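Human: For the file, kindly provide a plain-text protein record giving the amino acid sequence and the backbone structure tokens, at your earliest convenience.
Assistant:
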Amino acid sequence: MSLLDAQSAALCTAPETPAIAHLKHFTHRTLRITVSDGRVFLGQFAGTDKPLNLLLVNTEEYRVQGDDGQYDGRFVGQVMIPWRIVTKAEAQGRGEPVAIARGQPVVSRAAMDNTMYL
């Protein structure tokens, strides 16, 4: 059983709360995560853990190079991004991007306490 299959199975057994349903909506979608040092990660959302660190797979990392604003990218694969350094999170939507507010967790900590984590 692959990691994603195990995580999906764990999600199926979690109690269905509005917060969990919202989080499930983003699973396997492409996210663009901007962190405090200016890097941008573009990858497929695989899950989160109790402190809300984000797990992305098939991820590319981009850094702004020089004053001309050119991006230098590289493939980094699977990454765990601490939520405390995330300044912006965007999901590729059907049409326009969906922003995830930095000050409002996707899933409340109370909801996370009673669930199986990704």
The chain is about 20% helix and 40% strand. The longest helix spans residues 3-13.
